[in-house]
Design brief:
114 residues, 4 helices, globular, mainly alpha, Helix Hairpins
């Protein structure tokens, strides 16, 4: 189902469609499922609660950063399809931004739950 620009209210959902089906973070649904299970398992083990609002905030930030990172990677691939060390650096920085959310989540758990 492709959303067209004829209905302006549905245009943002085209991006969601791309993320869910094409080159987005949800392309490998197993990896996404592992991320969800890992987040909530760590939360349960450390906080003794199944659901913590701060864990939810970190999880949402992770998803948003993954979407932004995917967007940056698609733009980089579109602009320069051949191998480039600069494009590789750009993609690595985007991956580092995503990984930093995991780092800050671990730091949050260590500081507030130990």
């Amino acid at each position: 189902m492709k959303f067209t620009s004829e209905n302006k209210l549905l245009v943002p959902f085209n991006g969601l469609y791309v993320v869910l089906t094409k080159d987005g973070i949800f392309k490998n649904i197993r990896a996404f499922g592992i991320v969800i299970i890992l987040f909530f398992t760590i939360n349960k083990l450390v906080t003794k609660k199944f659901f913590d609002k701060n864990t939810f905030i970190f999880f949402v930030l992770l998803i948003i950063m993954e979407i932004v990172n995917t967007c940056i990677e698609l733009i980089a691939d579109f602009m320069y399809s051949e191998y480039s060390s600069k494009i590789k650096d750009i993609k690595d920085i985007g991956a580092t931004a995503t990984t930093s959310i995991w780092f800050f989540y671990a730091l949050y758990l260590i500081l507030f739950y130990t």
